[in-house]
Amino acid sequence: MNKHRGRFLALGLMALIGFMASEARAANLVLTVYSGTGTTGTVIYTQTGGTTTVNAIVNTLNSDLASHGFGAYTFSNLGASSNNPGTSGPVGGFILTSGNMNVATSGSGAGTPITIAVTEGGFQAPSGNSGASLFDSGQANYAGTTPASTTAHSGSFSDSSSPPVAATVTLPVLTSNGTQSDTHEASGSMVLPPYVTPYTLTTISTVSLVANPNGTGGSVGINDKVSVIAAAVPEPASLVVMLTGMPLPLVVLGLLRRRRRAAA
Prior knowledge:
With 264 residues, the chain is α+β, with helices and mostly antiparallel strands. Helices cover 22% and strands 41% of the residues. The chain folds into two domains: 27-233, no CATH class; 234-264, no CATH class. It is built from four helices and 13 strands. Strands 1, 2, 6, 8, 9, 10 and 12 form a seven-stranded antiparallel β-sheet that branches. A six-stranded antiparallel β-sheet has the order 3-4-5-13-7-11.
């Protein structure tokens, strides 16, 4: 028994090291709210979540907004989800950010932009040689705001190489039309160069709201989803056509002729 004790201890130590390494590789969603446009302004609020969800504590977020001069802005909810570490396809990895932001008819900071960024690393799929694409889709659902209200979305990718392979899809600005309720959407994509895993995804939403002075306040519901889309695998018939450069009917006709000759 004693001669096996050292082996058991070694195996246990190896398992513990492996567990600690897997924990170290675990990624977490991080939500940060900045003043101004982009992620170079002052940090107003930050929240670290789990590997698949993060939710802002809205009472704390709203208090932090007021203390930074944005007393006109409040959030009803703000959070994000992901499918980390991703799947083989067609959607490999994604982050979806969503929330509802309100603006009062009075108060400080109305019309001044704030930026919401959600980021997470550790995505493993799809692999970097798949011809994958970076895709971003954004939505802004305004109510009771003026045409001075805008929302801008972008989605970013970076891998773990040095220097990293990086890409960003920036969507057109979504502007309120000043009616009681109007929804705007935009999307865009780009093919990614070869990259290595794990990779990091980030959504960035910059919002500026002004309430209609004739109302009781305005709001916007935002959604922003950044995804890595795996390259589509051709169906067998399409693959034959692609490889031979021949129209599908000619390919089928050739196959039938070969079968008849073999049967004769």
